[in-house]
Each structure stands twice: as C-alpha cells, then as structure tokens.
Amino acid sequence: xxxxxxxxxxxxxxxxxxxxxxxxxxxxxxxxxxxxxxxxxxxxxxxxxxxxxxxxxxxxxxxxxxxxxxxxxxxxxxxxxxxxxxxxxxxxxxxxxxxxxxxxxxxxxxxxxxxxxxxxxxxxxxxxxxxxxxxxxxxxxxxxxxxxxxxxxxxxxxxxxxxxxxxxxxxxxxxxxxxxxxxxxxxxxxxxxxxxxxxxxxxxxxxxxxxxxxxxxxxxxxxxxxxxxxxxxxxxxxxxxxxxxxxxxxxxxxxxxxxxxxxxxxxxxxxxxxxxxxxxxxxxxxxxxxxxxxxxxxxxxxxxxxxxxxxxxxxxxxxxxxxxxxxxxxxxxxxxxxxxxxxxxxxxxxxxxxxxxxxxxxxxxxxxxxxxxxxxxxxxxxxxxxxxxxxxxxxxxxxxxxxxxxx
Length: 407
Fold this sequence. Notes:
Elements: H1 2-5, H2 11-26, H3 33-40, H4 48-57, H5 62-77, E1 83-93, E2 103-106, E3 118-131, E4 140-149, H6 156-170, E5 176-180, E6 195-200, H7 231-237, E7 242-248, E8 251-262, E9 273-279, E10 288-292, H8 299-307, H9 310-321, H10 341-344, H11 348-351, E11 355-356, H12 383-389, E12 394-395
Parallel strand pairs: 1-5, 5-6
Antiparallel strand pairs: 1-3, 2-3, 3-4, 6-10, 7-8, 8-9, 9-10, 11-12
Helix pairs in contact: 2-3
C-alpha cells in the first residue's frame, strides 16, 4: 500500500511519512508527532522538525492520497457492481485556541432530542465506501475522502457534493449509491454523475403528487400535483403493505414496506423521488421514512441500503477511540507555537530551544533534516520529558562558557 502513495511525495517526504505511519500504528498513548517519533525514528536519523515541516508545509497533496486510496479500495474490495457510499459529518474535539479550522459545532454524540450540546473542535465531512467483510456481519466503512467544514465557509451539504463529484471523476466507469442522513437530503436535487441518493426524509419537506398530464388548454401547465399530507398521516391511512426481509447491521429482520413516487419541488422540480415507509410489524420501533432518487430499486433494497449506513458511525467511533484520530497535533503557520505540556510532554520553556538530534545520511534516508542549530544556553532537558520520551529524541544543549561554573 505504501508503494502506491510513493509518487505523491518527494523522496525525503516519503521517508518521513513512513516513519510517522509506523509510529502511528505501533506507538502507545497519544498520537502526537513527538510521541510517534519515539517509535518511528528512535535513533534520531533526522531532526524532529523535519516531520513537523512535512505536515505543515510539505510538498504533498491530501487529494492525491485520497485518490490513490479510493481507487485501490474499490478495485480490490468492490471490483464489480454498484459502489455504495456513505456520507456524514463528525466532530473531532480540539479545544485549543490556535487550532486551525476549529469552531463551535453541535456534538451529535452528546446531544439528545430534548437537549442540544455544543462543543469546540473540527467538523469533518467524511465519505466512506461500504464493503462486506468475508466473515459476514455488519458492513465496514472505509474512508475515501474528507473535507473540513469551517465557520462561514461552504456548507456540509456542498462539501459532500464536491467529494461525491470528485470520487465519480476518479472512477469514471462506476456507478454509485450514496446514503446520508436527513441533513443531506437536499442532495437529491444535486446534479452528480452516475449517483443516486438514499436519505431520511427531512421533517420540513413539502411533498406533492406528480404533476398531472397536460390538458391542451392555454396557459402554463401545472408543475406539481396536489400537496400530500405529512408522511406520518400517509402511513396511518396507507394500505397494501408488503412484508419483506430487510438487512439491518448484518442480520435479517421482517418489515412492512409501503412506497410511492412523489415530487419534492423545492429540491428538484424536474424529477420524481421515491418515498419509502418502513414499519415494524411488532410495533416496537416507530415508522421510518426515506426518500431515494433510485427509481429502479425496490422498497426492501432501499431500506436495507439505508440501514447499512451505520457502518460510517462505527468508523467514527473506532477512529476516535481506538486509532487516536483526535490526538495528532503539529505546528501551525510559519512557525511553531509552544504546545501544552500535557500534549507534548515538555513545558514551553524547556521545549522552546531544544537542539534536535541529527544523524548522518544513510541508505534509504536521503534527507535527515536540518542540522543542529544554536540554542539558548538555558535550553536543557526537562526531567518530565526525559522520563516520558528518553534521551534519544531530544538532546540537551551545552551552556556557553559564561554560564559554566568557574574553576
């Protein structure tokens, strides 16, 4: 897999990237760059600031990495047929004042129906490809694209549309079935190539019957049919329910399906969408209401397709709890800011003038980083950082003669 992304980096950048990736996978504790270096580069073959420069100003493109990853995942794990893609946004908690792109957003994990909880962090819009594990069970969601939602910037819906268009451009010979929650239901009217959308119905969606045929009379023909009652009322009066088997999180359950074609004029005035109502025959769960732009799929297929969207929620949980997705940090802008001691393992004073260890050039490591530079005399090893990281990464600087003890 690393050979596939080699062309997205320069030779020195790829060497730093492999070290960071090794430290990410094997390193214990928080995945900060300083901590990852203790595993990825314990001998100090290059200066630690070379790794910070790679993240901050390195010659590499995140879009190029996503493209390599997406094409490889689809080619190997979804070699034929429809590619099912899930989209959602999540909040990575980062409360620092200088975190680039951070803001106050709704925390979906801690919010409830009656209480909305807000938190500071990075709001990421993520696109995952849904794949089937060989052993069965709940499907897996593998990330293939991501965007950062900033306050005052493009909306999450617009970012999702951009990513989906980009993914379709990377795979020009494949068709896609996109699934997203009700916040992205308006994508039903977006013009995305070879892509259908399945989503929950928005609570404020104004649905109507299809436009009646033209009568031949003078005047503008009607563009919409009669306004339909809210879907809960449609479900209460609906008949001819169909009993089907729906796949939910790797298991098969019995459900009742009722669907019809409707027009969501405010989103897409030119095309019909399919309204699907799913009912639990035991009455344990409330009715679910979905819309889909896939007019050829059955009601059971649409219900199963949306139920599989849970894989992206599992991906978010695993990324935060097991892979340390909220932990990495690096310098911002043109230079470093003193990091909090709890994250970097050293106080701002002791970390301000540390001399990095630089090893000579070796095979496979074309750029060991910047050479050791002069530092203030008071820049010495912090006992706290020495206990946590050892003396292989941070080297103490020698004090000048004026501060050395006189004989």
